[in-house]
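Progress against Task 2.4 (sequence-to-structure conversion) is shown through the following example record, which the project officer requested during the mid-term review.
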Amino acid sequence: VYKRQLSKALKTNGVNINASSQNQMALHIHQLEVIVKQQTLKYRSEGIIELEVKLNKGKRSFNKYYNGSQNSEGPLIFDKAKVEGQLNTLLEQMISRIVNDVELQEFLQG
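Structure tokens generated for the chain above:
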């Protein structure tokens, strides 16, 4: 899912994706989780994402970490679909930050 989202976002921002290119990009997921704390009458969830982007362009390289978190609370028992949706939203926000990163764009253009 994340690979498709990242590819689409990069293409939207003018990056040409070609598997046979000597330029390489890797997205490493260091952390992607939701921690849910259930109490008697409510729950609290925390989504945590830590991604690392690695780019190689000839002899040049670019590495950068991107971190994000999101908290939510709700009444009674947590809703798995709602928590998954919040994590997906956070992942989309992280991908948007990556493709709009000025340092990354300058590296790709240089």
